[in-house]
Amino acid sequence: MAAVLRRSAKYSLSGKLTPFAGPVTALHSRNERGRTALSCLVSNQRNSSSVSKIKVDLDSNTGIAVMTLQSPPVNSLSLDFLTEFAISLEKLEMDRGCRGLVLTSALPKIFSAGLDIMEMYGKSPERCGEFWKAVQEMWLKLYGSNMVTVAAINGSSPAGGCLMALSCDYRIMADNPRYGIGLNETQLGIVAPFWFKDTLANTVGNRTTELALELGLLYSAPEALKIGLVDQLVPEDKVVSTAIESMAKWFAIPDHARQITKSMMRKPTIDKLLSSRESDINNFVSFITKDSIQKSLRMYMESLKKRKA
Ligand code: CO8
Fold first, then answer.
1. Cα 185 to ligand 1 centroid, rounded to whole Å
2. Residue 157 and residue 69 in contact, taking contact as beta carbons nearer than 8 Å
3. FRET partner for 112 with CA separation of 20 to 30 A, picked from 44, 106, 173, 217?
């Protein structure tokens, strides 16, 4: 009972985080199997849409939350999406009943298309700065999470989508060679910042990162497994269930020991960004608003549309 009250109290907190966060309404309900459905409705002053881009299901029996990205057409990381993501993550982080997080997509064939390119095209420097701060926040929260985090990658995951997966503790991908994953920024004529680079290098090593970043490589699922970018391939319909099952071996380790070890591995990388957040934002804004970069982004968007036609 006390635990139930404690959990309810936690969900009623209205996110203390992020200066860019809009008002939040958390809807909290239970069904007979003890499953807790948390639906965050974020209404942003810039955009009156109240449709949730992220669904969170916390199973209070297992302590595992499944966060499902559901922002069609491609789960691109817009400012609204990132804001909702940060709030949802913070709520789970504060919930002592939640020990593990599975991150997956509701969209067929796509985990996430990465940063929303339209957030970087034709926008004011102020808006670009706000957007980049939200991207930083997403990474800081996920890479530094105390929970066990498993990416259930059930589709393509370029650039920022790959970063999201890389920020988890473990990656399980659908065994489908048509799905690509990688930091392909140079293909767009843009450059992944140092903390994207560090996150990849911490996972696959320096030389592989050098090749991957310079050539903007997107790896097929089997290639990604070979270089250690993902940890396991399973049939597409087993990605989420395997991710949930995989939690058992992490939960068998005392939380404090696992968390301190994770922090020891990741803190230096996180601290590097924390000590230079403002200059990282300024670098992004001055780079992305350059005419030549805006032109590259426009051409890339056009090439995406042509490919479709
Ligand atoms: N942002 C915004 N819109 C997008 C994005 C995106 N990232 N990706 C796709 N879309 C749009 C498409 O233009 C298309 O729009 P429309 O229907 O109006 O034509 C719609 O989404 C559907 O796209 P597709 O038809 O291409 O869908 P497919 O199922 O055929 O393919 C893919 C899905 C594989 C995800 C494909 O869309 C794709 O490859 N997208 C591009 C992904 C990409 O390159 N993302 C990189 C973004 S940059 C980033 O994340 C890190 C930047 C780091 C910043 C550094 C700056 C200094």
1. 12
2. no
3. 44
| Strand partners for 148 | 100
Phi/psi at 153 (5° precision):
-90, 95
- Using CB atoms within 10 Å of the CB of residue 208, give its burial: 0 to 12 exposed, 13 to 18 middle, 19+ buried: middle
Q: Which of 15, 114, 129, 160 is an active site residue?
A: 160
Phi, psi of 63 (to 5 degrees): 75, 20
State if residue 73 touches ligand 1 by the CB under 6 angstroms criterion: yes
Q: Is 160 a catalytic residue?
A: yes
pLDDT in 10s for each residue of the chain, 309 residues: 333 333 333 332 222 222 222 222 222 332 333 334 444 333 333 333 568 999 999 999 999 999 999 999 999 999 999 999 999 999 999 999 999 999 999 999 999 999 999 999 999 999 999 999 999 999 999 999 999 999 999 999 999 999 999 999 999 999 999 999 999 999 999 999 999 999 999 999 999 999 999 999 999 999 999 999 999 999 999 999 999 999 999 999 999 999 999 999 999 999 999 999 999 999 999 999 999 999 999 999 999 988 877
Q: Is the pTM of this model over 0.70?
A: yes
- The upper half-sphere exposure of residue 47, i.e. CA atoms within 13 Å in the direction of its Cβ, equals 14
Phi-psi sector, 17: left (phi>0), alpha (psi -120 to 50), beta: beta
* 163 labelled catalytic: no
Q: Is 116 touching ligand 1 by the criterion CB < 6 Å? A: yes
Q: Does residue 216 have its Cβ closer than 6 Å to ligand 1?
A: no
**Residue 215 annotated as catalytic:** no
The Å distance, Cα 52 to ligand 1 centre, comes to 20
CA distance 259 to 273: 20
